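User: My advisor, Dr. K., asked me to get a structural model of this assembly before our group meeting. I'm new to this, so sorry if the format is off. These are the inputs:
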Amino acid sequence: MLPQAGTHQHDEAQYTDSMAVPLFVVTPARLALEPLVAQVEITGRLDGEGCGAVCTFIGVVRRSHAGRTVRYLEYEAHATLAVRTFERIAHEAVERWPQATLAIHHRVGRLAVGETSVLVAAAAAHRDEAFRVCRYGIERVKQIAPVWKREVCEDGAHWIEGPVADPANDDLRRQALVRACA
Amino acid sequence: MRVTVQYFARLRDLAGCGTWTCDLPDRATVGDAWRAGVERFPATAALGDSLSCAVNADFSRMDAPIHDGDEVAFLPPVSGGAWTEP
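Assistant: The format is fine. Below is the predicted structure of the whole assembly, which you can bring to the meeting.
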């Protein structure tokens, strides 16, 4: 099913009080898994065979990175572009798996070790597809979403940077598909 | 024309500011806005080879034309996330 419009929401009350959870969100509020699962299930239920499986990915802040002890992370996003990028990723997923529904919520701001930074939920008629769509979703978020993290350690702070984000790069997209279908 | 230039993450740290207003000649491109920024904030040159850009919150290219009132964002490489070969 094609994605519904996303938002970026700036406070906790707005995030948790929403009647219908948008599928694509960037927010400083604590992320909540259950409303997101309910939303992809409801959205997926209406399509094709209906929804028989929801697969979720929860990204959490790890206590160490490259041998360093992490005190906390700071996530920053180009919020409008990030939400549009999540929509783009969901469109890509629907091109490959037409009956699937994908949702992505990303948190920004200061996050302590153990807190949830990103939620991906994928609904599909069957579990095999749900797992694949979920994996594809998180791989693409890591590849192209304009979200950056700054790691604050005992010995200082640094931005963590990967490769240049090019959403039109087909090699990257194929790589994400390969991982999703491994 | 006058555009708003936005810097994110490490680029913002290098520039020392997140946004600035940039005056450019007609028919300028995203690349012209970048180069004007390097002139004003020389430290941003360090990221010149590893950038993405967006105009009005859509991904763009350095050679894309820009227009009066546009928001031109420069984006350092994203976090990526570690991938360990199985």
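One thing worth pointing out at the meeting: The two ends of chain B are 52 Å apart (CA to CA).

User: Perfect, thanks a lot.
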